[in-house]
Design a protein that fits this description.
Layout lengths: L7 E4 L7 E4 L1 H4 L2 H15 L6 E5 L2 H13 L2 E7 L7 E7 L4 E7 L8 E9 L3 H12 L3 E12 L3 H4 L5 E8 L2
Parallel strand pairs: 3-4, 3-7, 7-8, 8-9
Antiparallel strand pairs: 1-2, 4-6, 5-6
The structure holds adenosine monophosphate (AMP).
Length: 173
């Protein structure tokens, strides 16, 4: 199945010059959604995965079914101030200034095998911050998985050293 047909490109959202890749059209088709989760599962089903680490917010949509299928725990990485218990945090760059992502300190233990999931890789800054969190707790990162990788933004460069999978590559412009 060609999953790219289910991604809607929305020009100039949320601001001029951005080609927003809308995944709601894929989620709204149960066969396409099923296919996307199955493809992600097949990348890792030979491995013993302890935790699926999903990035707020669209990463949660893929991370949850993937964790169930892989019989792994689901760990939520959230924007600052959303998680209720003790957290670790890592900063990442926004266009103007910085923001931070947080993970519960006790959610991943040293040596645990994890995979990281998000909907889309653009510049790689968000995922780089998640890697920093996982390095802090000395997790073993088995791989990073995206539904979409945008070509031309060098996101992959920031994450080199880790096995990186994307189901679709789309132009950023
Ligand atoms: P980055 O940190 O630059 O790799 O950005 C990745 C995050 O921003 C992902 O969580 C995406 O959901 C979101 N994102 C960035 N660019 C786009 C885009 N063109 N279309 C849809 N989502 C995007």
């Amino acid at each position: 199945m060609d999953l790219s047909k289910f991604i809607r490109n929305v020009p100039d959202f949320p601001k001029e010059g951005i080609q927003f890749k809308d995944i709601t059209t894929l989620l709204n088709n149960h066969k396409a959604f099923e296919e996307a989760v199955s493809c992600m599962e097949s990348l890792f089903k030979q491995e013993k995965v302890d935790r699926v680490v999903a990035i707020e917010s669209r990463g949660f949509i893929f991370g949850a079914p993937l964790a169930l299928r892989l019989k792994a725990g689901l760990v939520l990485v959230r924007k600052k101030g959303k998680l209720p218990s003790e957290t670790l945090s890592a900063e990442y760059q926004l266009e103007y200034g910085t923001d931070s992502l947080e993970m519960h300190s006790d959610s991943v233990k040293e040596g645990e095998k994890v995979i990281v999931v998000d909907d889309l890789l653009a510049t790689g800054g968000t995922t780089e911050a998640v890697i920093e969190l996982l390095e802090k707790v000395k997790a073993e990162i088995l791989g990073i998985c995206f539904l979409i990788e945008l070509d031309g933004l060098n996101g992959r460069e920031k994450l080199k050293g880790y096995p990186l999978h994307s189901l679709l590559k789309l132009p950023c412009d």
